[in-house]
User: What shape does this take?
Amino acid sequence: MPGTLEPYHSGESKVQPRTRSLSWREALPVLHDRLLKLKEMFTSKFGSLPKFYVRAPGRVNIIGEHIDYCGYSVLPMAIEQDILIAVEPVKTHTLHLANTNPLYPDFSTSASNIQIDKTKPLWHNYFLCGFKGIQEHFGLSKLTGMNCLVDGTIPPSSGLSSSSALVCCAGLVTLTVLGMNLSKVELAEICAKSEHYIGTEGGGMDQSISFLAEEGTAKLIEFNPLRTTDVKLPSGAVFVIANSCVEMNKAATSHFNIRVMECRLAAKLLAKYKNLQWDGILRLEEVQTKLGVSLEEMLLVIEDALHSEPYSPEEICRYLGISLEDLQTQILSPNTQDGESAGMLIFKLYQRAKHVYSEAARVLQFKKICEEAPDNTIQLLGELMNQSHMSCRDMYECSCPELDQLVDTCRKFGAQGSRLTGAGWGGCTVSIVPADKLPSFLANVHEAYYQRSDGSLAPNKQSLFATKPGGGALVFLEA
Ligand code: ADP
Ligand code: NG1
Assistant: This one.
């Protein structure tokens, strides 16, 4: 399994594949059982049958952290864990959302008056991001209503992209209800943009892999324009995800957006230093492209242009020749402005730029090693992953003590490389482990990290697991 894939919409694009559908009886056995349960729950909740189901996967980013929003390529793969939604279109123009997890309460709203509260990242707001993105794309003011039951298996706030899987799933649900056509690339771009409604200013990695993933291969994802290239991972290696059990909700804190703003400011200062038109520049990649130099040369440019002491808002304003008000209103995002106006922010521009340019180079090296497959491939990939973690920890400061401890534990018990994955400040690690060491690795890491005597962790069977590249979002038709 799965069985034959049929094009979901007519007019299949030759250039960009569209989303596809399966009869749900053709789904993998494990998904089939979940679909059956979801159907039963849907019927008892709404008193009717779902008409179709949509699945969107989470992802693990193998390498390339915090660089998608700077314009640089990343290297993720989809995971088995996903968001699955059972859907019934209704004629009432009301959107009814329910969740199999009682932690996420029911929610209803008029489908033509979507309000997304940035100050409270409640679960239904992520659904509304996907819904609104599609609504706006087609310029529709009055959308049909629907009953939706959501079921998720991605650990939330753990760097495996549960939020984007929910946004993407909701986007595809809405597109399917409307009976409209979009390519996967278009869907990914719409959902990446619309997840910003929740307040976080991420890049497009998570939404791109959720739609464009294919079973059996990791993907190099490039931006502007969005495109993907298969990256065949070495057959002798297994990628293992381990959850530090520390949750970090991106939208509820300003950590994430502060990094986005630091990178934006670093790009502007570098551009100004190099006499480029700095005011239109938003991403570090634009500076490199405009200068026409290599990533390695950009690392030399930052040595000359930026200092390692943190920058105050006043120093940045002096350098760019702008007022504090301009900085606040034209460059910083809302939840970073607050900290700034309270005088709390300092910007580590040198460290952030150093991370970004070096991490972007590591992604390209990782892909090259996978392609050339030398004898010591696993060791070389592991070294790049270790360097990536160090850079995230020391230059980007997006790790935490638990993640550092978990990475050390994974390396101690046989991982050739281990690093935090996703936004960080908590969440998961990804490790590259030689296949023959997998059983002892899992047993030892489990004992050393999860069986703590102080009972401070709440691990479950989702906390430590080997993963393989999975497929992208799908629609399952009731059959
Ligand atoms: P991640 O790194 O997993 O994307 P975020 O902190 O950005 O984490 O988003 C997590 C939020 O996504 C949760 O707090 C919740 O609001 C929403 N979410 C995740 N999984 C589910 C689910 N199964 N059902 C409903 N909402 C979910
Ligand atoms: P997660 O791990 O889902 O919080 C976030 C961003 C990504 C990327 C990574 C860091 C969103 C939706 N996702 O991912 O775009 O920047 O952090 O590499 O903002």
About this structure: Residues 83, 99, 101, 104, 121, 123, 126, 150, 152, 154, 156-164, 166, 249-251, 422-423 surround adenosine-5'-diphosphate (ligand 1) (CB under 6 Å).
